[in-house]
Amino acid sequence: MGDSLARRRPKGGFGKAAAPAGGAGLPPPVPHPTSPAAGHILLRRPMALPEPPIRLPPGVAIAPIEAANAGAVHKLMQRAYASGFGTVPANLLDWWEGLVTDSEFDRNLALVARAGDEVIGFCLCWTSSFVKDLVVDAGWRNRGVGSALLSTAIAALRARGAEELALKVDIYNGTAQRLYRSFGFGQD
Ligand SMILES: CC(C)(COP(=O)(O)OP(=O)(O)OC[C@H]1O[C@@H](n2cnc3c(N)ncnc32)[C@H](O)[C@@H]1OP(=O)(O)O)[C@@H](O)C(=O)NCCC(=O)NCCS
């Protein structure tokens, strides 16, 4: 994070696999191969699109991350990314220190979904308007938790004056691609 070039570019937007060729919109999801992480596509969503409503599933609350739930969030990401659709440093302290000392960290963009005391989802955006992580625990998927996290992040970024939101998604992650497409994300 020391050099100015790194600060000018959205995180994850360089040094990674190039997007496959394609026109406007997303390519159709393809079946998962035996080995994931074959490549990513870069998706963008103009903030000028209508703001998606935040629909919290019953019993679910979303709030900025706190040190007290860092361990649960880290475990959640380790479980969710076992699919190969994302990565998180193996060591909790390495991850936490790297997160909170990052120049693009804002606690209001590091959102934790909880059901009671249980951490069930997490969405991290960098202040450069880049979605770094979106994970929901397997037992809570398909109930709107991921959508609620993303909607909350979009509202927070809009409040910061962001003009666009970007992210990278594995070319084989059809589930996440569908979710992002429903939010108006598209490929260049
Ligand atoms: C991608 C991910 C975060 C989505 O989280 P989620 O909580 O399941 O997301 P949602 O519930 O909001 O949306 C998922 C689907 O459930 C549907 N859904 C939402 N609420 C629903 C409800 N109450 N009843 C039935 N279906 C519902 C959505 O319409 C969506 O359908 P679609 O797949 O046909 O588009 C989750 O699958 C995950 O953690 N995957 C592993 C990590 C990962 O790949 N992260 C993305 C990295 S880029």
Question: Strands of the largest sheet, in order across it?
Answer: 2-3-4-5-6-1-7
Bound molecules: coenzyme A
User: Span from first to last CA?
Assistant: 27 Å
Beta-strand content estimate = 15-25%
Count of DSSP strands = 7
What is the radius of gyration? Answer: 16 Å
Question: Structural class of the helices, strands and pairings?
Answer: alpha+beta
Put simply, the count of helices is 5
Walk me through the structure.
With 188 residues, the protein is α+β, with helices and mostly antiparallel strands. It has a domain of 110 residues: Gcn5-related N-acetyltransferase (GNAT) (Aminopeptidase). It contains 5 helices and 7 strands. It is globular, with a radius of gyration of 16 Å. The N terminus is likely disordered. Coenzyme A binds next to strand 5, helix 4 and helix 5.
